[in-house]
Design goal:
The protein has about 325 residues and is mostly helical. The strands form 3 sheets. The protein has a two-stranded antiparallel sheet with strand order 1-2. A two-stranded antiparallel ribbon has the order 3-4. The protein has a two-stranded antiparallel sheet with strand order 5-6. A hairpin with a 2-residue loop joins strand 3 and strand 4. The protein is globular and about 45 Å long.
């Protein structure tokens, strides 16, 4: 039984034929569509972005059983180093003047690649200094003038924002926590522990009442927020060290219940990777992806193919552990 993009099922074995989709083809897609400057865009032949380049790099590094494509990785590393700003941050695209959440991804990719500790440290320092504005004076004043609480959340709990000086959100907080968790003890500063604890508490505070996460608001005007696949998977991966907590288990239950209805390849790969990281039984990913590949070819999305490769690496290794001599995400 195969997942289709419309959310239905196709029981026909002819839905997928040999050679149309495989985990290997996902990796080859990334290698084929690396830009001449060494980065990747969100789609083939589009300008290189930090997010897409970091994810493609992480995907190429992840498969311990495959030969490392050294030339492609070296070109990607050089692109990321050129894109880093003097303050240690990375912008969304080269040439922009402000760093953003993609700093977590770029620093993580360079750290796992293992050859650029100075760039990783500068990215770490920027992230530790990048406080959001959840509870600044103007936001507190606005809440007082509103004479009521629109959303239910503890604004004293700080995570990370998409751009500096804005509010905390689930996904950038999860990515920052994943990066900090990847660092060895000698690269962690004492203040990193406080940031990690606040970020983790913020994620638990933002969890939807029935488990799972959306982008950031668990309850608005008294109405419970609806969880979404992507934010839930990222939050659970970030909170993996606390896997036995009731909140984690409740959210895993929601994700398992939603899994059979997932109709998008990117969401399916993220959910599969998350469930595997927690040791939950889940059927092989490739056949279901094959059913999705036929109708839309995943819209030729670099992020989707990178996440598929990372999900496939979970068949060999647990997320965040070491397998086959290579550190994997």
């Amino acid at each position: 039984m195969l997942l289709r993009e419309n959310g239905g099922r196709d029981a026909s074995p002819e839905a997928v034929t040999s050679g149309q989709f495989s985990d290997t083809s996902s990796r080859q897609f990334l290698l084929t569509n690396q830009n001449s400057d060494g980065g990747w865009g969100y789609h083939p032949a589009t300008p290189s972005s930090v997010e897409a380049t970091a994810w493609a790099s992480l995907a190429l590094l992840a498969r311990a059983a495959d030969p490392l494509p050294a030339e492609a990785c070296a070109r990607a590393r050089a692109w990321l180093l050129r894109a880093q700003m003097p303050d240690g941050a990375w912008p969304a695209f080269p040439g922009q003047r402000q760093g953003c959440w993609a700093t977590s991804l770029a620093a993580l990719a360079l750290h796992l690649e293992g050859a650029t500790p100075d760039a990783v440290v500068r990215g770490r320092d920027w992230l530790l200094d990048a406080w959001p504005a959840d509870n600044n004076f103007w936001r507190r004043l606005r809440r007082v003038l509103a004479r009521g609480t629109v959303v239910r959340q503890d604004n004293s709990l700080h995570g990370w924002s998409w751009t500096p000086g804005t509010a905390s959100w689930v996904e950038p907080t999860a990515h920052a926590l994943l990066f900090l968790r990847s660092l060895p003890a000698e690269l962690l500063l004492p203040r990193a522990a406080k940031r990690r604890q606040l970020g983790e508490r913020m994620l638990y505070d933002r969890m939807c009442p029935g488990g799972g996460w959306n982008s950031g608001n668990p309850q608005v005007y008294g109405v419970a927020g609806m969880p979404r696949i992507g934010p839930t998977a990222w939050a659970l991966l970030a909170l993996l060290p606390h896997s036995q907590r009731a909140e984690n288990q409740m959210s895993l239950g929601w994700l398992e219940g939603a899994y059979p209805r997932i109709s998008g390849a990117a969401s399916l790969a993220l959910a599969h990777r998350c469930l595997r990281a927690y040791g939950r039984p889940v059927r092989p990913l490739t056949p279901d992806l094959g059913g999705l590949y036929l109708p839309n070819r995943f819209f030729e999305s670099v992020l989707t193919f990178a996440w598929i490769v990372l999900a496939g690496s979970g068949e060999e290794n647990r997320a965040g552990q070491t397998g086959g001599g290579r550190t994997v995400l």
